[in-house]
Structure formats: C-alpha cells, structure tokens
C-alpha cells in the first residue's frame, strides 16, 4: 500500500510538472526573443506566476493525499513584497517542499542556490534556467589553485540573481551546508556539530554584501525529522514521521552591508564567527527535538 501511494504521488508530481511545463516552455522561448530588459522583466513575472502555481498545486495534493504530520512555526509579519535571505539546514529533498509549505506566497518566489547538474532535469531544469536561479559549480581548492579564474564563476552567477532584486522583491534560499546531512559526511569533515555539517559562509556573505538594505532580514529555518533517515520517496509514500519546521527572523547586522570588503580576511573571519554561532544554536535546538545517531 505505501508503494502504491508513492507511485500515485510520483504520478501527480509528474503530471503537474507536465501541465505547467507547457506555459513554461512558451514563456521561456518568448523571454529569449523579446527585445529590451523591460519586456524580459514582464515575461519573467509570467514565469514566476507559472512556478508559484506549480508549487501551489503540489502543496494542495500533498496536504490532501499525503497528509504529512508537520508542525510549522514562522513569523507572522511576512509579505511577498519584502525581500528575504532564507538559510536552512538540509536533511532530505523533502526539505524543499517543507519550506514551500511554510513560506509559499508569504514571501516572494523562492530562488535556490543549485548544483549545476540539476539543469539537466527535464522541464524543471529549464524552469531553473528561465527563472535565473544561480547554478553553483563548487570547484575544489585544488582546481581554484590551478586556475584562480574559476573562483569568480559562482560569484558572477550569484550577482546575476541579485540584480533581479533591483526590479522586484526577491527571496533567496540557501542550504548553507552545501549538501544533505549524513553521519558519514559529518564524521568525514569532522564537523563540530551533532546534527549539522559545517556551514559555508561564502554565498550568504556575497548575497548580503550585494543586496544590503534591499533585504528585510534573514529567515533562519531549522527543519527537524523524527525519522533519523528521511527520504523524499518515504515522504511520497506517506511514511514520513512527524516533521517540525521553525523559522525565526534575524536582523542583518550593519557590518554585513559593506559592498566591497567581503573578500577581506577580517570580514571573512567575522562572518564565519557569526554563522558558526548561529549553527551552534541550531544544533542545540535539534538536540532537543531529535537524535540522528
């Protein structure tokens, strides 16, 4: 029975994607050929509407078909007219839909930092490209040492996304651990946290230095699973144990607004201290809710 439920859920996800894929492809082609930035912005607004409807219908059938046991706590003063940086821990692909459930239409259309390989997913990858999500290549230190120019590629992708905030409010989502948590990964990188990998501060620092006061703040999200090994397939099968999502609003310290010093050593150290302190609090919160070991 759970497998059958999972197959029906997967079918609903695919059918919804194919349905909204038709206007998505049309608007993507239109965006490529229309002249002028103003017209492109109009098309981008249409693409945003398509993506929001895709999210909305997925959330509708998930709530009524899967009926997930989710406890959500978010600030009450959120608005789609405000800009936000959303940072979260990362346990499963289910995290994305938990964030959607908590924040859909409460903040602007979400944009994620994505691994470049995701651009090859049919329809979905096209949507990511058309909506101008930043694709991260994440070169190793050894590769950057051999070719320093590689260090600027991810930065330029982030800058392109941040330029959208000059025209419309934007919500930037970042799983700052860079990958999904597992005990094996935690031990391999000698993470000082029980339930988290080491946070990567570079993307967050760059977004805040580029956008500065255009954002209304930071939403710090902590997602906790009762199941020690959550999977998206388990979620689609309706087998996922209770999930808790807690979001809190943080003000952006004034020192983060500086546009030109995010490459300076002192600024980097200050930023790492800030995000490590945040991660220590998050680890303590997860300590009281679950046990991954």
Evaluate the radius of gyration: 19 Å
What form results from the Cα inertia axes?
globular
Following the backbone from N to C, one meets helices and strands in this order, namely HHEEHEEHEHHEHHEHEH
Instruction: Give the N-to-C terminal Cα separation.
Output: 29 Å
Helix content: 40-55%
Structural class category: alpha/beta
Summarize the topology.
Elements: H1 2-33, H2 37-66, E1 70-73, E2 84-88, H3 94-103, E3 110-112, E4 114-115, H4 124-130, E5 135-136, H5 141-146, H6 151-162, E6 171-175, H7 183-188, H8 202-211, E7 217-225, H9 232-236, E8 243-250, H10 265-287
Parallel strand pairs: 1-8, 2-6, 2-7, 3-6, 4-5
Antiparallel strand pairs: 7-8
Helix pairs in contact: 1-2, 1-4, 6-8
């Amino acid at each position: 029975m759970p497998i059958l439920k999972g197959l029906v859920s997967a079918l609903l996800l695919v059918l919804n994607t194919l349905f909204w894929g038709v206007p998505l492809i049309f608007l993507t082609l239109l965006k490529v050929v229309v002249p002028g930035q103003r017209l492109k912005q109009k098309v981008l607004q249409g693409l945003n509407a398509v993506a929001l409807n895709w999210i909305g219908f997925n959330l509708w059938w998930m709530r009524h078909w899967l009926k997930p046991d989710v406890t959500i706590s978010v600030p009450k003063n959120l608005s789609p007219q405000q800009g936000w940086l959303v940072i979260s821990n990362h346990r499963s692909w289910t995290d994305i839909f938990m964030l959607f459930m908590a924040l859909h239409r409460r903040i602007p259309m979400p944009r994620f930092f994505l691994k470049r390989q995701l651009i090859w997913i049919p329809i979905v990858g096209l949507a990511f490209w058309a909506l101008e999500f930043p694709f991260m290549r994440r070169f190793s230190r050894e590769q950057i040492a051999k070719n320093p120019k590689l260090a600027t590629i991810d930065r330029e992708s982030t800058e392109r996304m941040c330029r959208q905030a000059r025209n419309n409010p934007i919500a930037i989502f970042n799983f700052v651990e860079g990958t999904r948590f597992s005990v094996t990964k935690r031990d391999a990188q000698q993470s000082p946290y029980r339930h988290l990998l080491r946070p990567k501060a570079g993307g967050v620092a760059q977004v805040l230095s580029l956008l500065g006061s255009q954002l209304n703040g930071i939403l710090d999200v902590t997602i906790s699973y009762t199941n020690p090994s959550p999977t998206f397939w388990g979620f689609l099968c309706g087998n996922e144990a209770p999930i808790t999502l807690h979001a809190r609003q943080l003000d952006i310290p004034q020192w983060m607004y500086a546009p030109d010093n995010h490459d300076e050593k002192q600024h980097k150290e200050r930023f790492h201290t800030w995000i490590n302190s945040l991660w220590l609090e998050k680890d303590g919160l997860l300590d009281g809710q679950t046990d991954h070991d």
